[in-house]
Amino acid sequence: MIDIKSDVVIIGGGVIGTSIFYHLAKNNVDVTLLERGTLASGASGACEGTIFLQTKKPGIHLQIAIQSAKMFKYLEEELDYDIEYISKGAMVVIPDEIQFETMKLFVQDQCNNGLNVELLDKKDAREREPALAETIEGATYCPDDGQVNPIKLTYAFAEAGKRYKRARILNNVNVEGISLEENKVRGVITNKGFISTSIIINAAGAYAPIIGEMVGLNIPIIPRRGQVLVSEEAYGVVNGIIGTSDYIACKYNPEIKNVNSSAGLIVEPTASKNYLMGATREFVGYNPRVTYEGIRSISGSIVSLIPAFKNISIIRSFAGLRPYTEDGLPILGCVEGIEGFIMAAGHEGDGIALSPITGKLISELIISGSSSMSLEPFRLSRFKEI
Ligand SMILES: Cc1cc2nc3c(=O)[nH]c(=O)nc-3n(C[C@H](O)[C@H](O)[C@H](O)COP(=O)(O)OP(=O)(O)OC[C@H]3O[C@@H](n4cnc5c(N)ncnc54)[C@H](O)[C@@H]3O)c2cc1C
Prior knowledge:
Elements: E1 2-5, E2 8-11, H1 15-25, E3 31-34, E4 50-51, H2 60-79, E5 90-94, H3 97-112, E6 118-121, H4 122-128, E7 138-142, E8 146-147, H5 150-162, E9 167-170, E10 175-181, E11 184-190, E12 193-196, E13 199-202, H6 208-213, E14 222-231, E15 241-244, H7 246-252, E16 266-269, E17 275-278, H8 292-305, E18 314-324, E19 331-335, E20 338-345, H9 351-368
Parallel strand pairs: 1-12, 2-3, 2-13, 3-9, 5-15, 13-20
Antiparallel strand pairs: 4-8, 5-7, 6-7, 10-11, 11-12, 14-17, 14-18, 15-16, 16-17, 19-20
């Protein structure tokens, strides 16, 4: 049985928990990470690995994504781990004229906010990616978008953190309760014993609301399932990451209706020469299963976007649960009324891309009481105001 003391306890061994773990460990903080399964057994091990800037709405979302993308540039060297990081740009394909008009405004807005992104007409888009269907209307292209292997990234943070003496990771430890005294954190109750601490970080992803309930909080994070297909080794069908504009255009211009649950596809070539193709967006509770309808929907959309995929076999499929919030932003920072309880969850489809900056900001908050970027837009209490 465990009976230890730790200055900080992180709940959740996904990319967010391990990034915070690393950033605290390297600053010599005594920190313990608890994971009920093994590292990356949640969404961080069942997702794609794109680091998209051009999908972010100008404002705080784009700002935090830019800061995080800058950190990726030196992460591989800093963590001393091959995380399969590449930053070669990505394309977002626009299927029709209505979305083209919306994306024109979106791109203009992004450029005005300092992002290097351009709008391509159909001819230029197909010159860059000849495999695209003739039916497309155009595309946007951002040379600063990139990708990483999310499982390797999670392990890279964990391994780099464990090199510091005061940092430990305990797998197969399920958090079952939180002990409070006069609304101050006192410890964590687990299936393996008690850990005494005054600071808890809730990095449980889609399961963060269950941890919240342990201290009487209502955390508005909802699991949003995403199904992904893995192709056989088939490099060269497309040159780089390709997404579609459906989801972005719908968010930016609510008058455009989302056509199906797979709208907003991403095709991502991996270092092992397969393609990841996904993903659905479904509210089906805590159900991480792949469905026949999901597979059909993704493969049908892929073939109409890139007809050459018709001859490529799918060898595997998986599904993960994104930690969705209504405004698309994560919940980060201290929680009013519960001293020592810190939130770091709700990154929805951006958790991989935002993991470095999240780890940095949360560790700064713990070490110095404030962070280099204001966490005000990410506070839990904003949902009372929506
Ligand atoms: C299909 C799909 C595609 C995606 N594509 C991208 C992409 O291209 N780019 C991008 O940036 N993001 C992407 N995402 C989003 C990204 O995967 C998530 O935002 C990110 O992984 C969330 O990380 P996390 O650490 O918060 O949660 P998780 O990885 O889910 O980790 C939470 C951990 O907490 C543990 N846990 C829960 N309860 C307890 C408990 N009681 N005790 C102990 N441990 C507990 C779980 O076991 C889990 O390991 C995608 C997601 C999906 C599903």
